[in-house]
Amino acid sequence: MAATVTRQLCSCGLCRSRITAGTVARAVSPLTSSHTSASLSSLFLCPRRFFWNPFASGVTGSASVTRDAVEQQNAEQHRRMVEKAHHDAHLENEQLLGACLDLLEVCSGNAVGSTPSGTLDALARDRICILVKIILHDRYCSPAEQFDRVYAALCLPAAQERRQVQRCLMVVLRSVVPETLYRVFESVNLLVLHDDARSLRQREVLMQFMHAQLGELRVPDGLTEEEVLSVYVEDMKSMFPALATCPAWDVVELDATTIALKAKLFALLSRLCAEFDKDKTGKVKLADLRSTAERALGKDQSSYLLQGAQADKDGKIAYAQLAALLTRPPRRRSVTAESE
């Protein structure tokens, strides 16, 4: 089983030297808060929260700064952010892959310390194996769909009874939802385990709120995003009273609209990527993008839009890199240009 998984992970782009026992050990170690939501995903994993922050402010400058200096400063800031994003993404993806390996080992009954009586039941094995396959290989499963799978697995009796399984699934959850939302799940028990009337309502409210935060916010005619989200937030507080004393929830409540709109933006970008990705590779041809951009924006604007794009040997770039390019802060105009 481990050999098969190793081959699959190598085919996804992970170096064989990275797939070690240490990787698995790190997957179940206590999580730290050192990873931020500004991370980029790897070539084969595109969780939405790894994308560039489209609401980041541009570099500020004094009135005496020239246009060239401002652009150079922006370019340097962009370079540093990309480097940090790749570094953070590498660390988080390594932890995620380790957790997935550990879950597969548990499902196969080959986990360290496992006994015949500790083997997972058939339902748990099937759901966890499908979840791992989706996380590692399915680039077309939306964040909301991924969340539904992870949440359902966390609610399984096997996850409740086995701390190792629960901790690995929490690592997977962290790769699917924004960091601020993950902190709420880490602080408050939001798992609905029963099917009575109140539990069904709790689950409905939670899914409605989470789907909105993951890019599937639907606004009825005559209402605004803020109005709809305010109702969802109040419903959450009503159904889960423990949120009233959760500092992490205070952050989510304050930024709920921003999180939802950002997720909606990346859902649109994903559909844009899919339009250019006819072969379903998770990458798009840079030449096609450049040609389309030149026809739509002109040569100068398209050149800036795709500035810094680094294609692979096949002339393609990954979805995450395209999203980073499209959501960069706009260039700041020089003081001289603004006064003209």
3D structure, described in words:
It is a single chain. By secondary structure, the protein is mainly α. The protein folds into three domains: 1-58 and 83-176, no CATH class; 194-276, no CATH class; 280-331, no CATH class. The chain is built from 15 helices and two strands. The chain has helices at residues 2-12, 21-27, 67-108, 122-137, 143-154, 157-161, 163-176, 179-187, 197-213, 225-239, 247-276, 286-297, 299-305, 319-326, 335-339, and strands spanning 283-285, 316-318. It has a two-stranded antiparallel sheet. Helix 4 packs antiparallel against helix 5.
The tally of strands reads 2
- Low-pLDDT parts are 15-65, 334-340
* Category from helices, strands and their pairing: mainly alpha
**Over the alpha carbons, how many angstroms does the gyration radius reach?**
22 Å
Give me the number of helical elements. 15
The percent of residues in helical segments reads 55-70%
Task: List the domain count as a whole number.
Answer: 3
Q: How much is the average pLDDT? A: 76
Q: How are helices and strands ordered from N to C?
A: HHHHHHHHHHHEHHEHH
Going across the major beta sheet, what is the strand order? Answer: 1-2
Write the layout of secondary structure elements.
Blueprint: H1 2-12, H2 21-27, H3 67-108, H4 122-137, H5 143-154, H6 157-161, H7 163-176, H8 179-187, H9 197-213, H10 225-239, H11 247-276, E1 283-285, H12 286-297, H13 299-305, E2 316-318, H14 319-326, H15 335-339
Antiparallel strand pairs: 1-2
Helix pairs in contact: 2-3, 3-4, 3-7, 4-5, 5-7, 8-11, 9-10, 10-11, 12-13
